[in-house]
């Protein structure tokens, strides 16, 4: 488990975002290994997850 989105995308095969005790997002990381941090593919997945996190936090403001 990690709170670092870049680390999760680089190391995991699946990333779950948990909000209010429920799974808010389930992202499959279907990229070959070894994965290079900073690659366009990883950046796109990080962006997708971060966008969801930021949109969710705007709802609580």
Your description of this structure?
It is a single chain. By secondary structure, the chain is of the alpha+beta class. The chain has one domain (5-59). The protein contains two helices and two strands, in the order H-E-E-H. It has helices at residues 5-11, 40-59; strands spanning 14-19, 22-28. It has a two-stranded antiparallel sheet. A hairpin with a 2-residue loop joins strand 1 and strand 2. Helix 1 (5-11) crosses helix 2 (40-59). The radius of gyration is 12 Å and the shape is globular.
Outline the secondary-structure elements.
Layout (H helix, E strand, L loop, with lengths): L4 H7 L2 E6 L2 E7 L11 H20 L2
Antiparallel strand pairs: 1-2
Helix pairs in contact: 1-2
Morphology call: globular
- The amount of beta strand, in percent, is 15-25%
The helix/strand series, from N terminus to C terminus, equals HEEH
> What order do the strands of the largest sheet run in, or round the barrel if closed?
1-2
Calculate the mean pLDDT score and round it. 89
Give me the secondary-structure category.
alpha+beta
Number of helices in the DSSP assignment: 2
The biggest sheet, with number of strands, parallel, antiparallel or mixed sense and barrel status, is:
2 strands, antiparallel
Q: How big is the Rg?
A: 12 Å
Low-confidence stretches: none
**N-to-C CA distance:** 26 Å
């Amino acid at each position: 488990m990690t709170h670092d989105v870049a680390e999760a995308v680089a190391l995991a095969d699946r990333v779950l975002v948990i909000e209010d005790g429920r799974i808010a997002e389930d992202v499959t990381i279907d990229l070959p290994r070894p994965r290079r941090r900073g690659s366009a593919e990883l950046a796109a997945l990080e962006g997708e997850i971060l966008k969801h996190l930021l949109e969710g936090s705007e709802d609580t403001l």
